[in-house]
Every structure is written in C-alpha cells, then in structure tokens.
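note to self — DONT lose this again. spent like an hour looking for the file last time. sequence + predicted structure for the chain T wanted, 300 res
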Amino acid sequence: MNADLAKTSMFSSTDYCVIYNPFSGGRTKERMLQTIEKELKPAQCFFQKTTVEFGAKKAVDLAHQVGIHQFIVVGGDGTIQAVATHLDPGKDILGLVMGGSGNGFASHFGYRRRISQNLKLIRKKRIQQVDMLTVNGYRYVNLAGVGFDAQVADKIRSSKRRGFQAYLLAVIQLIRMNIFWSGKVNLDDERWSGQFLTVVVANASIFGYGFQIARDAKADDGLMTVVLVHRVSRWRYVLAIPYFLLGLSHRLTWITQRTATRVLIEPEICTPIQADGELLMQADTYDFRIEPRSLTLITA
C-alpha cells in the first residue's frame, strides 16, 4: 500500500498524503486505509504513519518532496494537531477521517464516524480557512484546558480503555479527589479570580465523545471561546453530564462563557494543562494567543 518515494513521477497535485496514527482510538487502521485507497481512486494515496521515531513533520516534508499538497489525517485531535502545525495554509489543504477516541475537532466541522461520509466530504472539497490557537507557544487546533480535563486526559492516557466509557469512568474516579484550583483568568480587559474546576480555551466546540463544552465557538472568527467552570458541589458536575451531551451547558449557572483575543491564566500553584488531549509542561502562567485563518480545512 505504501508508495515508493523514489518514484516521484507517480504523484500529481490531485493525489493525497494520508497520515495516520496506528495507535489512536485503540483500533487497527489497516481496513480503514484500504477503504480510503479504494474510494479515492483514481487519485493515488501516499500513506505515512506517525510514530515516535517518524513524526508528522517528516511525513509532511516527504509529501511536499513528491509534490503533494492534499493531506488526510486518520486519527484524533492529537494527530490532527501534529500534522496541522506543519502545513502551509496557502498551499496545503487538510481532510479528516475519524480515527481517534474523542474526535472533537472533526465532529465540530461535520465529520461523523462513518468513513464513507468522511470520504464524501473530502471528495467535495468544501474549503474553509480556520484559526489555530497557541498556549505558551504550543499550537493546537481544538481546545485546551487547565485543571480537571487535563487530569481526565492523563487518566485516560494511562488506561487500556478507550471511548466514552473510559471518559466517564475517569470523570467518576477523579471527581472525589483534589480537583479544584485557585487563580486568575485575564480575558482582554476582563478579569476573573476564584476557584475553578477547569478553564477551557476553545477554538471549536466539542471536547470529544459528544461533550459540547463551548456551544458558541466558531473556529474562523479570530476569537477564542473561554469557558470558566466554577467550583460547586462535586456531584452537581456528575448530574450535569446530560447537559453537556445535549449541548445545554450554557444553562448551568456555574459556567461562564466569554470570547477573547488574548487569555492569560495564572494559577496560584502549578496546575496541569492539556491541549488536544496531550498533556503539556506545567507552568506558572499560561499565555493563550490566536493565529487567525492559519489552517485550510475541508469541512461539511
């Protein structure tokens, strides 16, 4: 299935580089890749997998060497982030095939779990210029969270389970632990201080697993959507899970949603942070910025 890089004449501008994470979502990708290759004919596919030794940047560079500027990521938010960081929005376009656990970013843009639906969108090539965000210089595509959701991401990462059940189990296990943090959140000219469960800085609206945390987020408006989840009784969070699944979290009185062009979060003590499901190095301050229209994406 893998094309020979040396035979550069095999490829044209209408072909695709398919970059996949063999470990995301806890399932094999072989059948998915065969379907992609079959359904996208007569276009050819240049398949590259991301590993610790062979990262996304090397895969993108190899595709550029053979003249390919159409990319498909098979994976979750972390894999999308790893690839998108190295794409040129003026030349490269990106399509998605859901292959991760949560798939929040793809869900926001109309992708669903049926691979046939994903490939239909890719063939239509409806293009949208979307934003990317950064935290302390680290680029991400979907959302980042300081506090509880970073703890959940860490719990899931160390578990053999995947999917919604793994997420729900991690939430229930952690909810009884030390999950709150105190600090300041600076949003342009607005200031918040107090105790929080988490503060999410979102580009798109969905955590993954169908949990909609930032209902009004738009990934092409040049704004970050900030969701402050204030401290309340622990079991109120558990009882609120249906609100997140139904997109009704904005009705909860202990949630505040704002938009901003610059966000500075200052926890009183080092507090964990995740971006696109990946744990980042903890810091005294988290400085969030926006890179408007820095990714060219195929959307529904």
